C-alpha cells in the first residue's frame, strides 16, 4: 500500500502547486490565432494543443473517465492527474476542447515553436483547425506511438511524429544497446547459472543469444 499512498500524496501535492500557479497566471488571447500550435513545457514532458479561436484549445489527453461514466457534464470538467494517469495505463484518451487556462494549467505557452523543428511547412491556420476539430472524440492512446504531440503534428504539418518519443527511445537505446550492457548481461547470466548449478543448453543458450543480440545492436 505504501507506493500507492506515496503516489496519491505526490498527485495531491503537485495538484496544489499547479492550482496555485494557475491562479497567478493570466493569458492574453490576442497572442493566439486560429490554427496556432500551443506548447506547454512541463517538468517531465511537454503538452501540445491547437488553438481554435474564442479561447478554445483542442488537445489530446489521456482520460479514464469516459469509460466510467456517460455524464458529459462530469467528463467536461478539467482532467485531473488521477484521471490522466489511469487513462495512460488503460490506453484511453480523448481529443477535447478546453479553455486556454485549463489547457495550460498555469504554465507558460509557446506559440508555433515546432515550426523551427519540423522540416515541413505548416498548413494555413484554417486547415490546421479543421483537422483538429475533425479528430475530436475518444481514441486509443499510446505513450510512445500516439500522444498529444503526434496529434498536433498531424494537424499542423501532415506528419504524425513525436520528437519527445524519438528522444526517449534514443536515450533508452543508448542505455540498453551498449557494449557494457552486453558484458553485464553475459556476466549476470553466468553468475546465475553457477549459483543455481544449472549449466545446461536451456540456461547458457538464452544468455549467449541475448548478450550477442545486445552486442550486435550496440
List keywords for this structure.
disordered N terminus; 6-stranded antiparallel beta sheet; about 15% strand; alpha+beta; about 220 residues
Indicate the topology.
Elements: H1 2-24, E1 37-41, E2 46-53, E3 56-62, H2 72-75, H3 81-90, E4 92-98, H4 100-104, E5 110-111, H5 125-134, E6 137-140, H6 148-157, H7 163-176, H8 179-196, H9 201-217
Antiparallel strand pairs: 1-2, 1-5, 2-3, 3-4, 4-6
Structure overview:
It is built from 9 helices and 6 strands. The chain has helices at residues 2-24, 72-75, 81-90, 100-104, 125-134, 148-157, 163-176, 179-196, 201-217; strands spanning 37-41, 46-53, 56-62, 92-98, 110-111, 137-140. A 6-stranded antiparallel β-sheet has the order 5-1-2-3-4-6. A hairpin with a 2-residue loop joins strand 2 (46-53) and strand 3 (56-62). Helix 5 (125-134) packs across helix 6 (148-157) and helix 8 (179-196) runs antiparallel to helix 9 (201-217). The longest helix is centred in the N-terminal third of the chain and has 23 residues, at 2-24. The protein is elongated, with a radius of gyration of 22 Å. Residues 1-17 and 20-24 have low confidence and may be disordered.
Amino acid at each position: 500500500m505504501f507506493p500507492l499512498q506515496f503516489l496519491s500524496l505526490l498527485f495531491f501535492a503537485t495538484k496544489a502547486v499547479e492550482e496555485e500557479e494557475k491562479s497567478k497566471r493570466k493569458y492574453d488571447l490576442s497572442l493566439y490565432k486560429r490554427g496556432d500550435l500551443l506548447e506547454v513545457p512541463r517538468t517531465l514532458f511537454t503538452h501540445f494543443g491547437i488553438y481554435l479561436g474564442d479561447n478554445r484549445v483542442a488537445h489530446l489527453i489521456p482520460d479514464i473517465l469516459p469509460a466510467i461514466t456517460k455524464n458529459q457534464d462530469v467528463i467536461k470538467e478539467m482532467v485531473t492527474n488521477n484521471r490522466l494517469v489511469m487513462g495512460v495505463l488503460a490506453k484511453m484518451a480523448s481529443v477535447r476542447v478546453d479553455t486556454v487556462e485549463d489547457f495550460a494549467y498555469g504554465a507558460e505557452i509557446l506559440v508555433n515553436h515546432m515550426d523551427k523543428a519540423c522540416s515541413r511547412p505548416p498548413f494555413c491556420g484554417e486547415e490546421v483547425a479543421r483537422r483538429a476539430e475533425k479528430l475530436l472524440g475518444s481514441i486509443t492512446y499510446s505513450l510512445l506511438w500516439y500522444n498529444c504531440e503526434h496529434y498536433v503534428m498531424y494537424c499542423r504539418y501532415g506528419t504524425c511524429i513525436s520528437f519527445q518519443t524519438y528522444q526517449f527511445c534514443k536515450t533508452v537505446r543508448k542505455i540498453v544497446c551498449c557494449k557494457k550492457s552486453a558484458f553485464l548481461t553475459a556476466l549476470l547470466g553466468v553468475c546465475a547459472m553457477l549459483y543455481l548449478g544449472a549449466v545446461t543448453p536451456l540456461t547458457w543458450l538464452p544468455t549467449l543469444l541475448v548478450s550477442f543480440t545486445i552486442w550486435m545492436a550496440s
